[in-house]
Amino acid sequence: MAVCIAAYIAMRLWGLAAWCLDGDEIFSLGLARQGWGEMTSSAIRDTVHPPLLYYFLKVWISIGGQSLFWFRLFPMIACTLALWPIILLARRCGLKALEICLVVALAAPHPYLVYYSQHVRMYALLLMFGMWSLYIFSKVALTENETRRRRLIAFTIVNIVLLYSHYYGIVVIAFECLFALIWKRRLLLSMITSALVTLIAFAPWIYGAVKSAQAKGGLDSNLGWIQKPSFPDLMWYYVDLSGAGSVPRYNFAAPVLIVLGVAALFFFRRNQTRVIFFLALFAYAPAVFSFAVSQFTHNSIWGHRHLIFCVPPFLMLATLCMTRLATPVGLGLGALAVLWAGLMVHQRTLGIHEKVPWDSLVLTILDQERGATQPVEFYSLDQYLHYPVWFFLENLKAGDSAGFAQVPPRSEMPRLSRDAAMIKVRRQTAVADLPQTGHFWVAFSSSWAGEPVRSTLKIQRGCRVGDPVVIWDKFHWITAFPAWCGT
């Protein structure tokens, strides 16, 4: 077990500060830098995430500062602490010591878990407290024990903390009540009582969030970019859940194999039906629920990251498929698991861009604008592209390298601070509204569907355009280039 836990930790420390903060992480740091009252007000205005993460981060950076490694260490530690309830839950589900080791070993290189262990948002808290909630619930749901008052109080407190970590905690609580309704109805009254107390404790935040949403005319500004999921999107979630998103050609085979294995478990291990159903419910059903709700709500609530608490139950099911089915089947699945784990480790060695290197873009722009004597405007054609550029420039203006993976030498900071002060970042701008004269920068992403801006400026306006600077991650790319018009 110690070796498996060490591997789990090592995979999360590996490359922890290899990439700069992305836009969402910058938002987390920005709120954590504020005073307590201002931070709470900002979180309420944001509306779409409860505030607990920001409170934790404020304390965290007050202890160790704002270096990239220290900042990212917070979610890494939270996801590591999540192993405690995961191991306890596995024991409660009847997994043996070697099977629990296998669960941890499968979790160690799982790309879904590793990514959010290094992402400074609330998903690490959702995983940790979601697992505590499931473990405490399992202590009464998977046994014939009666509900004890102390256990019910602990369960309620954990669920309150879970909700203040992420709204998807409601999904965890809802499916716990559903399981009680199906398998242990005498537990249902206690579950409903606990859920009501949890919602009452969460009501002050809900009141503030609803008022904020009404004040800004809905949540389109926050959630409008999330498209309603299609059936292929749902299927791709299960590919991610199985950790096979990076496996070419055969990525859809992994979830299919596990589903067939679970069906076989139900058939051949009838004495374990309650445990198998428990794990299958929390591994598979929340995604279907999120998919269905998103079809009928004005704003989609779909997102793989919101379902991170489904991964440990899924890995427990996968382990049971390898150890409890007929020997040839188990050995075959085990061999595939070893092959998969090796491939995931190999993927890490390739240094694939996990996040867009915004710091590299900013430093490249400042290198090209070295010694500028006139303000240079930076225009973004995408809605959110300007935000990380603004953040890194503002940090450099203040002589601060927080969030940088490519930390500039101290000797360069005075020059970078002067040059950064000359760059004026503008919010989303249409091509037609770009300046007719002067020197400026233009940036857009691969998701931008407008006209070819470089040729428009060069051919239609007669501007001179410089070589593009291109940065990317494994999902999309960003292009920025300088232009001189009317000269």
Describe the protein in words.
It is built from 22 helices and six strands. By secondary structure, the chain is of the alpha/beta class. It folds into two domains: 348 residues, no CATH class; 128 residues, no CATH class. Strand 5 and strand 6 form a beta hairpin. The model has no long low-confidence stretch (mean pLDDT 89).
The gross shape turns out to be globular
Q: Helices and strands: which structural class?
A: alpha/beta
Helix % is 55-70%
Radius of gyration: 25 Å
Unreliable residue stretches: none
Helices and strands, with pairings:
Layout: H1 2-13, H2 23-32, H3 36-46, H4 52-64, H5 68-81, H6 83-92, H7 97-107, H8 111-117, H9 123-141, H10 149-165, H11 169-183, H12 188-215, H13 220-223, H14 231-241, H15 253-268, H16 273-296, H17 311-324, H18 327-349, H19 358-368, E1 376-380, H20 386-397, H21 413-420, E2 423-428, E3 438-445, H22 453-460, E4 464-465, E5 469-472, E6 477-485
Parallel strand pairs: 1-2, 1-3
Antiparallel strand pairs: 3-6, 4-6, 5-6
Helix pairs in contact: 1-7, 2-4, 5-9, 6-7, 6-9, 7-17, 9-10, 9-11, 10-12, 11-12, 11-16, 14-16, 15-17, 16-17, 17-18, 19-20, 20-21
